[in-house]
Amino acid sequence: MKKINGISVYTYGNENNQAVIFVHGFPFDNSMWKDQVNALKENYFVITYDIRGFNKSDVGDGQYTMEMFADDLQMLIENMNLNNPVICGLSMGGYIALRHAEKYGGIKALILADTKSQSDPDAAKINRANGIRRINEEGVGPFVSDFIPNTLSAKNKLDNHIVDRLVIEAKSLSPKTLKGALLAMAARTDTSAYLEKIDFPVMFVCGKEDNLTPPSLMKELADKVKNSIFEIIDDAGHLPPGESPEKFNSLLHNFLGGLE
Question: How far is CA 253 from the centre of its chain?
Answer without folding.
Answer: 18
